[in-house]
Amino acid sequence: MDVRTLCLGVLSFGDSSGYGLRRSIKDWFGHFGQASLGAIYPALAKLTASGEIETIDNVNASLEKRVFRITESGRAKLRDHLSSLSGQETVRSPFMAGLFFAHLMDMDDVHRLMDERVAELRGEQRRLRSLPMTEMTEGQRFTIRYALATTAAGIAFMEREGRAIITAIDRERDSL
Amino acid sequence: MDVRTLCLGVLSFGDSSGYGLRRSIKDWFGHFGQASLGAIYPALAKLTASGEIETIDNVNASLEKRVFRITESGRAKLRDHLSSLSGQETVRSPFMAGLFFAHLMDMDDVHRLMDERVAELRGEQRRLRSLPMTEMTEGQRFTIRYALATTAAGIAFMEREGRAIITAIDRERDSL
DNA sequence: GTGAACATGTAAATTGTTACATGATTAC
DNA sequence: GTAATCATGTAACAATTTACATGTTCAC
Question: Which of A31, A136, B99, B126 fits a disulfide with A147 by CB distance 3.0 to 4.6 angstroms?
Answer without folding.
Answer: A31
